[in-house]
Write the structure tokens for this entry.
Amino acid sequence: MVKKINIFSCVSCGYESNKWLGKCPSCNEWNSFVEDAKFKGKHAAGEYRNFGETGVMALPEIILSEEERIKTGIIEADRVFGGGIVKGSIVLLGGEPGIGKSTLALMLAGKTAEQGCKVLYISGEESLAQIKMRADRLKISSNNIFLVTETAVEKIAALIEKEKPALVIIDSIQTVYKDGVDSVAGSFTQVRESGAHLLYTAKKTGVPIILIGHVTKDGMIAGPKTLEHMVDAVIYFESEKYLQFRILRAEKNRFGSTNEIGIFEMTDEGLKEVKSPSKMLLENLADEKTGSSIVTVMEGTRALMLEIQALTGRRAYGTPQRTVTGIDYNRFLLILAIMERKIELSLESQDIFVNVAGGIKVNETAADLAVAAAIYSSFTERPVSTKTVFMGELGLDGEVRQVKHLDLRIQEAQRLGFNKCVIPAKSKPGKTEMNIVMIKDIREIAGIIRQ
Ligand SMILES: Nc1ncnc2c1ncn2[C@@H]1O[C@H](COP(=O)(O)OP(=O)(O)OP(=O)(O)O)[C@@H](O)[C@H]1O
Ligand SMILES: [Mg+2]
């Protein structure tokens, strides 16, 4: 006998309570409680816990089949998946409304189908005609793509078992419902229960499933966070407003690095892979610029050249404003503090804005020197050559510290026609035609950005 109990649970950490709470006592998140239902009895005990009757096996006895990954052929996406989609895995593809999730999924389906693999595209959101229209626009016409509109999870599972496709796409998990679960599709319980059912199907059949999920405004995948824990990979498709690029980023990946990103551009004919983003980002750059500096950052295994822009201006009264986009705010404050103390710049009455052009987010401390250079240039109104690249981390004492993958960064700069690299002292760069300038301390920046 299955007994249903109404409870409230935290979407962030899963903490359960029998009444609604404003703040979660476990993870301290505000407004994170949603109405939920819990089942007691056989059903709750784990209907989908066992993926197969293998019993206990010694590690070497487990034999992997030849081809464990499906390479879609969309290089930008394969890289984020960790080298292709792993068989039997379940991937959550999340993103804001209209970002291009269905477009990307259909393109993945198209490329996979072109290799002779059968793809099942299950839609609960759009009619077959709508998907066909999109496919026509994307010039996808493979005989190996099969479409169906279905939202009942049991029927979806049965279809997967019957059709045995090489890849399944479900658009979206919020429209899928499970019979017997007493809440509407898209609710916390429905998403969790349907997710568990699909996870079981993927593991049992070995068919990889891509689940599309909508992300709410505050960045949560609508429905439970628990889905993020259940699935093998959580991939976000994101874009800053007004940004030309759409970025595919792994939030979690059991089969690959989470540092890699895939960069796309949305066009009428679908998403175009951006293979040389640095080139696009640095297009139309004047030879000299005030309040600007170029840096090479590493996104996974790829070196990316970015322009950091800074604007400073004196504020006559009130608290000066500090606004940053694309870099960490606390890191920015730290760089300001170092500059104020070590180069004795009086920045305290200045409004300061820092922006990473193109809308890419920089998570690396290797960009510290470039941020400092851009601010210095804007403050002193001295232009910086846009053929110069800055790389280095700043220590609290003003010292410029080493960065990883220096040669890769220099090579990328050289490839794109830069002629000067400002790098930390004691670095050991490989052979290069670039003019290398080593600096030990932030105080030396004044000598580099001359009148
Ligand atoms: N000719 C076109 N027709 C429709 N959409 C286009 C066209 N050209 C480009 N697009 C882009 O495709 C995007 C819609 O993509 P898609 O439907 O894949 O998004 P989604 O993330 O699946 O959205 P939803 O959350 O509504 O399911 C639009 O925001 C638009 O930018
Ligand atoms: Mg869609």
Q: What stands out?
A: The chain has three domains: 1-44, 69-273, 280-448. Residues 1-44 form one domain. Confidence is low (pLDDT under 50) at residues 42-46.
